[in-house]
Specification:
This protein is of the alpha/beta class and about 500 residues long. The protein has a domain at about 5-255 and about 455-490: Amidase signature (AS) domain (Amidase signature (AS) enzymes). It is built from 16 helices and 11 strands. Helix 5 (about 155-160) packs parallel to helix 6 (about 180-185) and helix 9 (about 305-320) crosses helix 12 (about 370-390). It starts with 8 loop residues before the first helix and ends in a 6-residue tail after the last helix. The structure holds glutamine (GLN). Glutamine binds near residues 128, 175 and 205. One of its GO terms (cellular component) is glutamyl-tRNA(Gln) amidotransferase complex. One of its GO terms (molecular function) is ATP binding. InterPro entries: Amidase, Amidase_CS, Amidase_dom, AS_sf, GatA.
Length: about 500
């Protein structure tokens, strides 16, 4: 019999429903793994009592004959979602020890669907970063090579799922933070259409881009989670769409015969590493064998998405982060003179370097005299980037390309070079700016045996199609089920 951590969400849910295993037994197993694999830095908070209490409640719901889709399945949440039962830090010292009086909508919906929470996962501070190195708490390591970064900002989520410390996790994606770490850690992740999932209780970074999504091993598991996470939340998030929740798993098995896959020429330029390119090309050939056709398309403003994103996201961040002033919650400097001094010291102490950099950039591009030249201009180009996609979707059904230009880099390699980090976001930013759904699916291995993710981008509301396209690939490849060495390196405790 397979060890509990080898089972997918779908398998765990089925065995729990059939009462072959109990939620408490499963929770204990993953808590033990989280403990024995602490060196990977996936978790920021665990609380066995809280998790086991939730698991016992799930077992009671199962015993009472309830049929919620994720009943008893353990998950862990990126620490950007606020939770009542665990501290919520957003990876920042600013929120050290903060306890939210409420649960984020996404967290509440997953709990309603029966999920048990294993705790909170490491991330870049306020989700700003691509390597998890901006976490104010600890380093997260890639389970495929612990000397490398796991990606970010949902780095802890990717590590936890890849190393089998949780069957699935939540993540958030503003400019690639679900897709890029999923790609770097060899797992599957999907960012839905902007507005599908409520942002209520998601610590805000750039509100016009922030979106929640699931990270798991398979497309099927992502579909199960996403179905529970999405749906309107009109009273709490004014940008949540008035579109009813869907069963995103409904068309997983549809044939790909006749599917037109758009391949953007700008995603295959000089910046793309040859090892990544080889894995992407192989996946595209696999799709041809599955009956799809490849269509060359153009997304001519791909390169512009970097300056556009790095104007808009910091602009919104500078506004969103003004709430951390030491008054109502979060860190407050111990010693200060007047009120202005209190603000200054609090923010100087509480924020890390990258967050300060973004606040400064954002404040600058919004300032009088520069607003038109930077912020307004960026908004106009953002619109054009979105239009480019609509043009492209006239000749294709989904778009495919790399999620990132290289495999995961070494810890520290780009830590002192913010621009190098920004440039590596090139393939995920266009879809983010357009608000389109996107995912990363394991499609091979590159240099150093590191995973490569294929990015699939759909048109608005095309999540079910994306998951179908990903699922079909996973039926004919096994990249998503390979287990990284670090998943087993640490001693294992069976419940
Ligand atoms: N790497 C990008 C950034 O640093 C994206 C982060 C994200 O999607 N949260 O802003």
């Amino acid at each position: 019999m397979a060890a509990l951590h080898e089972l997918t969400v779908a398998e765990l849910a089925a065995q729990l429903r059939a009462r072959e295993i109990s939620a408490v037994e499963v929770a204990r197993h993953f808590l033990a793994r989280a403990k024995s694999h602490q060196s990977l830095g996936a978790y920021l908070a665990v609380d066995e009592e809280v998790t086991l209490a939730q698991a016992r409640a799930a077992d009671q719901r199962i015993a009472a004959g309830e049929a919620a889709p994720l009943l008893g399945v353990p998950l862990a949440h990126k620490d950007i979602f606020v939770t009542r039962d665990f501290p919520s830090t957003a990876g920042s010292k600013m929120l050290d020890g903060y306890r939210s009086p409420f649960d984020a909508t996404v967290v509440a919906r997953l709990a309603q669907a029966g999920a048990v929470s294993l705790g909170k996962l490491n991330c870049d501070e306020f989700a700003m970063g691509s390597s998890n190195e901006n976490s104010a708490y600890r380093m997260a390591r890639n389970p495929w090579d612990p000397q490398r970064i796991p990606g970010g900002s949902s780095g802890g989520s990717a590590v936890a799922v890849a190393a089998r410390l949780a069957p699935a996790a939540t993540g958030t994606d503003t400019g690639g933070s679900i897709r890029q770490p999923a790609s770097f850690c060899g797992i599957t992740g999907i960012k839905p259409t902007y507005g599908r999932a409520s942002r209520y209780g998601m610590v805000a970074f750039a509100s016009s881009l922030d979106q929640a999504g699931p990270m798991a091993r398979t497309a099927e598991d992502c579909a199960l989670l996403l179905s529970a996470m999405c749906g309107p939340d009109p009273d709490r998030d004014s940008t949540s769409l008035d579109v009813p929740a869907e069963d995103f798993a409904r068309s997983l098995n549809e044939s790909l015969e006749g599917l037109r896959i758009g391949v953007p020429r700008e995603f295959f330029g000089a910046g793309l590493a040859p090892d990544v390119r080889a894995a992407i090309d192989a996946a595209l050939q696999e799709y041809r064998r599955l009956g799809a056709s490849l269509v060359e398309i153009s997304l001519p403003r791909t390169e512009l998405s970097i300056p556009v994103y790095y104007i808009i996201a910091p602009a919104e961040a500078s506004s969103n982060l003004s709430r951390y002033d030491g008054v109502k919650f979060g860190h407050r400097a111990k010693q200060y003179g007047d009120l202005g001094d209190m603000y200054q010291k609090t923010r100087a102490e509480g924020f890390g370097d990258e967050v300060k950099r973004r606040i400064m950039v954002g404040t600058y591009v919004l300032s009088h005299g520069y607003y038109d030249a930077y912020y307004l201009q960026a908004q106009k180009i953002r619109r054009m980037i979105a239009d480019d996609f609509q043009q492209a979707f006239k000749s294709c059904d989904v778009i495919a390309g790399p999620a990132a230009p290289t495999v995961a880099w070494k810890l520290g390699e780009k830590a002192d070079d913010p621009v190098a980090n920004y440039l590596a976001d090139i393939y995920t930013l266009p879809g983010s700016l357009a608000g389109l759904p996107g995912m990363s699916v394991p499609c091979g291995f590159g240099d150093g045996g590191m995973p490569v993710g294929l990015q699939l981008i759909g048109n608005y509301f095309g999540e079910a199609k994306l998951l179908n396209v990903a699922h079909r690939l996973q039926q004919v490849t096994d990249f998503h089920s390979r287990i990284p060495v670090a998943a087993d390196a640490a001693p294992e405790v069976r419940s």
